[in-house]
Design goal:
The structure is a homodimer of 473-residue chains.
Chain A lengths: L11 H16 L12 H8 L3 H13 L3 E4 L3 E4 L23 H6 L5 E2 L12 H14 L14 H15 L8 E4 L1 H13 L5 E6 L3 H9 L3 E6 L7 H11 L3 E4 L13 H13 L3 E5 L24 E6 L11 E4 L2 H14 L5 H11 L2 H25 L14 E5 L6 H10 L2 E2 L1 E2 L12 E5 L5 H18 L2
Parallel strand pairs in A: 3-12, 5-6, 5-7, 7-8, 8-9
Antiparallel strand pairs in A: 1-2, 4-10, 9-10, 11-14, 13-14
Helix pairs in contact in A: 1-3, 2-3, 5-12, 7-8, 7-11, 13-15, 14-15
Protein name (chains A, B): GntR family transcriptional regulator
Organism (chains A, B): Brevibacillus choshinensis
Keywords (chains A, B): Aminotransferase, DNA-binding, Pyridoxal phosphate, Transcription, Transcription regulation, Transferase
């Protein structure tokens, strides 16, 4: 991905983290008074960010009298920087911030909803849902009167354990599964249990926006890992593993959100080995696995893991039953024990009813047939959208699965203007910058083809293109 | 409540907090080198704890060379205590601990389950549940295919807003309500949004055990407020408000868990005024309101609040539908905005299905009739349990509502032994110490009368009494 020039309003988050990072090393005494600090160029390389971002952090450090400048020679630690006397005056800037960038865009009401990566409810077999629900009440007449265990309904974990073993060759037992209220809860709990302020977290660039928000809220130092159509640059990843000793790498290797890219098998194997070697947990988020348009995607990273390095998060909300909010986490007992304790304080267990309905619905023959129909319906919508967009000068790689197109517009497009004019025209999309841990990617957008029916989809795209023409001559 | 003598294993949590507190004030320079520290007696009074707890904290500070002792004259700040040089060497001991004391006991399988404050599923109108569920699917055929908004289903918030206005004279609009996945999530989100390490939190003593765990995990400094049958000592509370400037007071003023006590009306009014005056938020947890055995309880604190001081958490899980996990939070927009953002990262909204089922079930005529039956059934069980326990030398105040008896046993009872022998006999109860922010209350236990049917309840109590006789001659 090409990086744009940083503007003040979009580089805030990352620059704060570099600010924190420098401050912390001074505080720890690793960098002493009058000692020369790493150059802007070095830090930019180390963090894989634009030099302006580092420059901005240094400027603020200078302004706050933590560093000083010697002409043409660089930045130095200010004597009497005050860090040792009262650490409360320099709190971690980034921790405790509860921000949710994606949900802000999702609050916009629009006729042509391309921002939410949701399934069109009409693509679900709604008429048959109540059958399964009735069945659940016949089988478990007291289901509404009882809590589930915190880790999740035993019957559901047994069934999913068999499913994972049969479909993906997981080496697994039901005690290594935790049922959560959707994948958002899973990501949140994993982050809360594993990440303390200043721990390093690798995130794909671009990535799922709420994951950025969650890890930033934990006060993590975020290092971006570029994802391209053919995967990661694993040599570069290895270097970053050496330099940063990250606690975890949150990744979405199959029909990635937002890009739709899929990491090839060989990279999966090597990444799992590297992660084990450098003791970096891999948090594999896998919400789109069943939505493939050609051949099935490669096995999850978890399938290749022999050393307990991978935490596997599988959401079933997106295409099975959004209204149930069921996801599952697979991991080894050492991490599972921590997750279960956190879950007991977070919500004392996912509702029992939802787990039982999901169990009977997901494993029904109808659901499995339905998935086939769903793939066809979504691939038609995707192709229709691509056809409509083919008249533009936008660029994208056609995804082999998932719900989204990740599109690069000309750099000259005034993106803020384009977004606000689109909203005025009752159209929403996700601006690329909120999917980017660096808050750059300003000429990219994510457009979802799964939510609108074919007619609305065509209308909406045509309308979006005409808004585009009006802001970009 | 009478305090027992602290033993090493039970006073751990509180002593750590006092340790943190002293350390922090030294670090901030409020207490300088060679300055005399507050006496053990003073700190014990200030924190409302046993002197041994303070003594233990000072002993560890001394051992870690942060303070020194001058014969007969007390504790002094050690020069060169090292706190200023590297704050990372003395992290907050208490933060980031994900502990869940109650859930550990709940994992014990037992025939005579007196530990979980749950409703007997047979007391719910299970046969009629499926009617309402079918109704929901008729009314909202796509309910499983759609997400709710993050703040909660509009129709449900509208209905609950009317309900609160009509029943409790709340001054409220639907935007001041947030639907959560049970009250545990509500407490967790409130704590995450409002509490940073070393913020002071008031907790009732005794209180709901998971609340202790949640606020401790946030790194709060916990100050206990004694609750007695006739309420709080509000003069003492006012002094503590002055001294500690707490961020919030988490309380359960109606049929309190575990004691069953209810704070009288006059105290409610005065407490709301005091809290407003000292800018302390009141987090009012109100899960048992409808389970009264005589007259209705006084109005919630929220009813008396005119300055946005009260955050009201109302769970409907306990006696309406545990399997749905629905609770609601009422608060003013300044706090609500923070809660909604945190909720969006915690689980992106409570499942839509559960909200719609709850809406139609709770507001049905049948549910309201059913509550009357429930009160009668539970009061019979409570009286039966009290009758069985009347042969013992245990002491308790008969609760006017709720699910629990809070009982004081003779101090000479070997509580650990009693609990483990009970578990061997397939009986569980909650030891008082885990309900106590000070981890004392060692001769108290919480016994729940709501879960077992009448026959099992009688059998279980008789069996418990015989275990008691065997450990305590």
């Amino acid at each position: 991905m090409k990086r744009g020039v940083l503007s003040n309003d979009h580089s805030d988050k990352l620059f704060e983290q570099i600010y924190d990072y420098v401050l912390e090393r001074i505080r720890r005494g690793e960098w002493k008074e009058h000692e020369k600090l790493p150059s802007v160029r070095t830090l930019a390389l180390e963090f894989n960010v634009h030099r302006l971002t580092v420059f901005k952090a240094y400027q603020l450090l200078k302004q706050n009298q933590k560093v000083y400048v010697r002409d043409k020679s660089g930045y130095y630690v200010q004597p009497g920087h005050g860090l040792s006397l009262d650490s409360r005056n320099d709190p971690i800037v980034s921790a405790y911030v509860q921000e949710s960038h994606l949900s802000e865009i999702h609050q916009v009401q629009a006729t042509y909803q391309f921002s939410k990566a949701l399934l069109d409810p009409n693509l679900l077999p709604n008429l048959y849902f109540s059958e399964y629900v009735k069945k659940v009440f016949d089988l478990y007449p007291k289901v509404l009167g009882t809590y589930s265990t915190i880790q999740g309904d035993q019957e559901l974990r047994d069934a999913l354990c068999d499913y994972f073993i049969n479909h993906y060759h997981f080496y697994l037992n039901p005690d290594e599964l935790l049922v959560t209220s959707g994948s958002q809860e899973a990501i949140d709990i994993v982050a809360r249990v594993l990440i303390k302020p200043r721990d390093v977290v690798f995130l794909e660039r671009p990535t799922y926006s709420p994951a950025i928000d969650v890890f930033r809220r934990q006060g993590a130092t975020i290092v971006p890992i570029e994802i391209e159509e053919d995967g990661y640059d694993l040599d570069q990843v290895e270097k970053l593993l050496q330099t940063h000793k990250p606690r975890l790498f949150y990744l979405n290797p199959t029909f990635q959100n937002p890009t739709g890219y899929t990491i090839p098998v060989e990279q999966r194997k090597r990444l799992v080995e590297l992660a084990a070697q450098y003791q970096c947990l891999l948090v594999e988020d896998d919400p789109y696995r069943d939505i493939y348009f050609g051949k099935k995607p490669p096995l999850p990273l978890f399938s290749y893991d022999t050393s307990g390095t991978v935490i596997y998060i599988r959401s079933f909300s997106k295409y099975i039953a959004p209204g149930l909010s069921i996801a599952i986490v697979a991991c080894r007992p050492s991490v599972m024990n921590l997750l279960v304790r956190a879950k007991s304080l977070a919500d004392s267990g996912t509702p029992h009813l939802n787990q039982k309905i999901f169990l009977h619905y997901f494993f029904s023959a109808r659901m499995q047939q339905h998935l086939e129909k769903l793939r066809i319906a979504l691939s038609i919508r995707k192709e229709m959208m691509e056809e409509e967009f083919s008249v533009t000068d936008w660029k994208w790689s056609s995804p082999a699965g998932g719900f989204n197109l990740w599109m690069m517009l000309p750099e000259s497009v005034p993106m803020d203007d384009f977004l606000s004019k689109s909203i005025e025209n009752s159209i929403t999309f996700v601006p690329g910058s909120i999917c980017d841990p660096l808050r750059e990617s300003k000429s990219w957008i994510r457009v979802c083809y799964s939510y609108l029916n074919e007619q609305k989809l065509r209308e909406g795209v045509q309308r979006l293109i005409s808004v585009y023409s009006s802001v970009h001559q």
